Amino acid sequence: MTPIGTARPRRRFPWPRVAAVAVVVTVSAIGVAVARNPGGAKTEVTAGAARDPHQAEQTTDPTTTPSPEPTTTSAVPMTAATTSTTGRVVVTASSTTTTRTAAPTTTSTAPSTTTSTTPAPDPRAAVDLAVRPGGDGGWVLRRDGSVTPVGAAPTFGDAAGRIQNDAVAIASTPAGDGYWIATSRGEVLPFGAASDRGSMANVKLRDPIVAMTATTGTGQGYALTSTTGTIYDFSPVAPGPSPTRAAGASPIVAIAAAPDNRGYWVLAADGTVLPSSTTLFVDNTPPLDQAATAVDIAPSPTGNGYWILLSNYGMFSFGDTQFWGSAAGVAHAPAVAVVASLTGKGYWQVTSDGTVYAFGDATRFS
């Protein structure tokens, strides 16, 4: 594909490109999802029915007001190493126990045993952010399905106590009068004025769902994606050809709908961006190192560019987007999501501890 636009990441390192294989599932009005695999047969699956750009604001912690200084170049901050692949923090702890027993006349040593335990992920860790179209507020979603309103956003309820797996994504309706919450099992729960357009809850998925995006423009709808890049589309507009991925490619971590419903971009943990339509802008993979992975993608309002967010707050701008700052050196938890402002002259970053940072003309939530 011939790239449209010019990427502007300010650091570049050689990085292998990957190709991908994905399946796109579209849902018809009668609730039947058709899985399309290029070159393969169709498979039917039934689914359920200008403020100062030099100032960043920490909006959920009233005791700290971060003010990182935006620069004119985007860079990968090297402040703290994280190992998050999907925006979740998983810590492995281990302990070793050796038991010795002695008889009155002899001494014997029992075999050494090692017990390793992996604590369950923090259910209160933030995993995603949805912002109302007007930019005056939004909602922070946590792994347990609970939702924290920020700014002027009202509360419409949440999925806490209603799900047995992890909540992974939240998306606002076009009018900002409701939202959808998606889980790793493929459930989609509507709140407020959001309509129930279906989900994958009654289908046994081969790979877990990791992200969701709402369609833009007219009509309500959304799309889910799995770790392998399979797109399950529940929108009024059918997506373009599915992206392809090679076996063993880096896992998919995010999906974003293009303006005017022209298709989707999916983002892999290694920073590779794959479009679901040949008309979509796509450019080079940002340079990464072992200190960070890509966690989210936010398109510009024109669709001719996007930002890629890394777990250590590195922000890379491509196409017609600009760098407006980063929470590097200020935030204390891994970055998990980025949302562009309505004008494209700013964005919000959210961390796994639920803190929201505003840059450019993005509203500072109080």
What does the secondary structure layout of this molecule look like, with pairings?
Elements: E1 20-21, E2 24-27, E3 32-36, E4 43-46, E5 57-58, E6 93-97, E7 100-102, E8 107-109, E9 113-117, E10 126-131, E11 137-142, E12 147-151, E13 167-172, E14 178-183, E15 188-192, E16 209-214, E17 222-226, E18 231-234, E19 244-245, E20 252-257, E21 264-268, E22 273-275, E23 294-299, E24 305-310, E25 315-319, E26 335-340, E27 346-351, E28 356-360
Query: How does the major sheet shape up?
Result: 6 strands, mixed
Please state the overall shape, judged from the principal axes of the Cα atoms: globular
Strand arrangement, largest sheet? 4-3-2-18-17-16
Q: Structural class, judged by helices and strands?
A: mainly beta
Low-confidence stretches: 1-116
Task: Give the class-level CATH name of the domain at 20-49 and 124-323.
Answer: Mainly Beta
Q: What fraction of the residues are assigned to beta strands by DSSP?
A: 35-45%
Mean pLDDT: 75
Order of helices and strands: EEEEEEEEEEEEEEEEEEEEEEEEEEEE
Report the C-alpha radius of gyration, rounded: 22 Å
Number of strands: 28
Q: Span from first to last CA? A: 44 Å
Number of helices: 0
Q: Level of helix content?
A: under 10%
Second CATH tier, the architecture of the domain at 20-49 and 124-323? 7 Propeller
CATH superfamily of the domain at 20-49 and 124-323: YVTN repeat-like/Quinoprotein amine dehydrogenase
